[in-house]
Design goal:
The chain is an alpha+beta fold and about 230 residues long. The chain has a domain of about 100 residues: Homeodomain-like (Arc Repressor Mutant, subunit A, Orthogonal Bundle), CATH 1.10.10.60. Helix content is about 35%, strand content about 15%. It is built from eight helices and nine strands. Strands 1-6-7-8-9 form a five-stranded mixed beta sheet, with no helix packed on it. Strands 4-2-3-5 form a four-stranded mixed beta sheet. Strand 6 and strand 7 form a beta hairpin. It is globular, with a radius of gyration of 18 Å.
């Protein structure tokens, strides 16, 4: 399933064997270099997470928390991968906790002001910390939870209204814009994750599924090239 949101430029991840070893050993020196997502629980962790380690075949790796959120994972409550240096600023921590406790919640600028928080400050913080606006963060969490529910067999009616959408058409449009396909296709469909990478010929976008790389695309002298 391809994420249609633009993903910022990232560097290549360390070799898989190295990441598995670092995660199994709880190596704090790898925190921030990559993040571990556990397929069986649907959570994303730091490499140093103290939680019991799953089998290697049940994890996948991301360069940023943002990518994991867009893939439908939720932050671990033990290692708090959304936090930098182990703690969020006091002024924004309640807001993040509120969203994580209820991803379907819709918070507009007026709601932020009612909570005593400046919307512009929130926007700047989320862009700097997570590479996306606050509204994009909320949308990613809301759709990620909806995606997980659909994959687990929930009916479309339940998902649409449980996650705060007013109509099926609105949900379908948002879902397709985010994931590149209709909600019904996601029940059995294979996920394709995309990321921007640096290469000797310039920036390129790469797409990969569980079976391997399936897309490499860049621009050469103003023309699009696809492999």
């Amino acid at each position: 399933m391809r994420c249609m949101e633009q993903i910022p430029m990232i560097s290549l991840l360390p070799p898989v064997e190295e990441m598995i070893r670092a995660y199994q050993n709880g190596d704090e020196s790898y925190d921030g270099i990559f993040f571990v997502a556990v397929r069986t629980t649907g959570i994303v962790c730091r490499p140093s997470c103290p939680a019991r380690k799953p089998y290697p075949q049940n994890v996948e790796f991301f360069a940023t928390v943002r990518e994991a959120l867009f893939a439908g994972y939720r932050p671990c409550k033990r290692c708090h991968p959304l936090e930098i240096k182990g703690q969020l600023p006091e002024w924004v921590a309640p807001l993040v906790n509120e969203i994580e406790g209820n991803p379907s919640l819709r918070i507009q600028d007026g709601d932020l002001r009612a909570r005593g928080v400046d919307p512009a400050r929130v926007r700047r913080f989320f862009i700097k910390r997570y590479g996306m606006t606050f509204q994009a963060y909320c949308r990613a969490r809301r759709l990620g939870v909806a995606f997980e529910a659909i994959r687990e067999g929930a009916t479309l009616d339940h998902v649409v209204f449980e996650h705060g959408y007013e109509s099926h058409s609105g949900f379908r449009e948002a879902f397709k814009r985010m994931f590149g396909q209709a909600p019904g296709q996601s029940r059995e469909g294979q996920c394709i994750y995309t990321a921007w990478l640096e290469s000797p010929i310039g920036p390129l976008i790469a797409g990969a599924s569980d079976e391997g790389v399936c897309l490499l695309e860049t621009k050469w002298k103003g023309k699009g090239l696809r492999v």
